[in-house]
Amino acid sequence: MLNTEGQYRLVFSSHSNIDIRTVLQGLQKLQFTGKPVFNNSANEYCAGDTFLSSITFMGCSPYIEFEPPENLKPSGVAEFCFIRVSKTSQPVLFHQGQLKNLKTIPRCRQCRKVLPDLQQQAEQFNQSGKFSCKNCDTVLTAGDLDWRKASGVGNIFIEVLNVYLQEAVPTDAFMQQLETITTSPWQYFYTDSNIQTKLLDIR
């Protein structure tokens, strides 16, 4: 697996019982993904022919490198844009175990207020899978929180690596195509693996 520590990414997540091979085949059929980065790739793919029509890039013509360097090794540092697909046995919070570092604080979906003590509740969540909203006295799972595009819950994740935070926005058509592949809703969020960046407030 390529080394992507600290690198920015756009992540799609969903909860579905679908086989990951069906997801990979669907992305290939859409031509969102192209050739594997390596022949024995761990579900890591170069961007496909429809990538730039599936993702809208904000700002002034950002330069993105899509081709891996010739001397890249499977455990090397990836400094080009590529796509990684993974699946877990059960739905998980993408940043589980890193909550103490999260800079963008989620909101309770019941009262719409942020959890001011997220860092203090991180250990509790890692043990019980629950949060407590002190504003409305509600017990919450990770899925009951609005992560404000800074994290997400699911068992299928599609990571687009090396695109700057909040600069790449998926089109509505692409989100619908993902739903068609898995017959399940999808969400997306932005992060780097160190989750040290606070995102612009998205309501």
Structural description of this entry:
- With 203 residues, the protein is an alpha+beta fold.
- It has 4 helices and 12 strands.
- It folds into 2 domains: 8-93 and 148-192, no CATH class; 105-146, no CATH class.
- It has helices spanning 20-30, 51-54, 118-128, 172-182, and strands spanning 8-14, 33-36, 44-47, 55-57, 82-93, 107-108, 131-133, 138-140, 145-146, 153-161, 168-170, 186-192.
- It has a 6-stranded antiparallel β-sheet.
- Helix 1 runs antiparallel to helix 4.
- It is globular, with a radius of gyration of 17 Å.
- The protein starts with 7 loop residues before the first strand and ends in an 11-residue tail after the last strand.
- Residues 198-203 have low confidence and may be disordered.
Strand content: 25-35%
Number of domain modules: 2
Task: Tell the overall outline.
Answer: globular
The tally of helices reads 4
If you average the pLDDT, what whole number results? 88
Unreliable residue stretches:
198-203
What's the β-strand tally? 12
What pattern of helices and strands is seen along the backbone?
EHEEHEEEHEEEEEHE
What structural class results from the helix and strand content?
alpha+beta
- How widely separated are the two ends? 34 Å
Radius of gyration: 17 Å
Q: What strand order characterises the main sheet?
A: 2-3-5-10-1-12
Largest sheet: 6 strands, antiparallel
- Helix content class: 10-25%
